[in-house]
Amino acid sequence: MLTIRNLHANIDGKEILKGINLDIKPGEVHAIMGPNGSGKSTLSSVLAGRADFEVTEGTVEFQGKDLLELSPEERAGEGIFLAFQYPVEIPGLTTTNFIKTAVNEVRKYRGEEPYDAVQFLKLMKEKMKMVHIDQSLLSRSLNEGFSGGEKKRNEIFQMAMLEPKLAILDETDSGLDIDAIRIVANGVNQLRNKDNSVLLVTHYQRLLDYIVPDYVHVLYNGRIVKSGTKELAFELEERGYDFIKNEVNEGQ
Ligand code: ADP
Ligand code: MG
Ligand code: MG
Q: What is the pLDDT of residue 252?
């Protein structure tokens, strides 16, 4: 699904990612954890194709294609969903119309006919039930005046509608309260199947009580310094990130 080799990336000439290696196979959920400032959001941004990050070395392959050559729109067309790709507030554009455009852009990219109103409504109804989102939220302007929980629900709804092959969720929000955690977890758990993969970027062990990952990786100072299974998340919860820092520093 996704193969990252020796990925290095800069922002403003400063190296943030210093050689990331990661393999994600179909059906797997990988969690990336790590202390603040270790480069977690930078990794998500680079995979999203955000222009302010410069890849200086390494490769990223997604389903056999060179991901780094693709625009953010092409990445979406290939089946990558990035939760923080659409955080913008757009007055006058309803959430429904926004999602309809996004879904049909992806279909167009794949050479499929756009959904007509009836087909789209059917899909909406099915997914609304799945993520427990209310019609009234979807009729409002995109993200305008949405609470934190509503933004999260909307984001997960977009993910459900787009049925991505690989969902990348960067849970940067320090205000990720228990409701938001449940919304995200429910959405991810619904998406999980043998063909889809999830890269869950989080600072919080607590999220992993609700989404049980197949693998956990610790990112520290721009490198994955430790990988394991869900037991690693428990260890981090118990011991904090300091033991990782000590292990890395002793090894140098
Ligand atoms: P994390 O998500 O793990 O907390 P980030 O990827 O956000 O870490 O940040 C990694 C490093 O990159 C930090 O030292 C941060 O200060 C720096 N950084 C992130 N974004 C920018 C930016 N836009 N300009 C300059 N430095 C940045
Ligand atoms: Mg941070
Ligand atoms: Mg971050």
A: 66
Gap from CA of 35 to ligand 3 centroid (Å): 9
Model pLDDT for residues 183-230, shown as the tens digit of each residue? 889 889 988 999 999 999 988 788 888 999 999 999 999 999 999 999
Ligand 1 atom with minimal separation from the 42 CA: 6
Cα–ligand 1 centroid distance for 223 (angstroms): 14
pLDDT value at position 237?
A: 86
Ligand 1 shell residues, CB under 6 Å:
11-12, 16, 34, 36-42
Mean pLDDT of the chain: 89
**Domain at 2-250: CATH architecture:** 3-Layer(aba) Sandwich (3.40)
Residue spans of the domains in the chain: they are 2-250
Question: Which bound ligand lies closest to the C-alpha atom of 170?
Answer: 3
- Pick the atom of ligand 1 nearest to 222's CA: 10
DSSP string, the chain: -EEEEEEEEEETTEEEEEEEEEEE-TT-EEEEE--TTSSHHHHHHHHHT-TT-EEEEEEEEETTEEGGGS-HHHHHHHTEEEGGG----EEEEEHHHHHHHHHHHHHHHTTPPPP-HHHHHHHHHHHHHHHT--HHHHHSEETTT--HHHHHHHHHHHHHHH--SEEEEEE--TT--HHHHHHHHHHHHHH--TT-EEEEEES-GGGGGTS--SEEEEEETTEEEEEESHHHHHHHHHH-SHHHHHHHHHT-
Examine the pLDDT at 173 and tell me if it is beyond 60: no
Place 246 in a pLDDT band, splitting at 50, 70 and 90: confident
Q: Which atom of ligand 1 is nearest to the CA of 35?
A: 3
- Among 14, 36, 42, 202, which is best to mutate for testing ligand 1, by the most ligand atoms less than 8 A from CB? 42
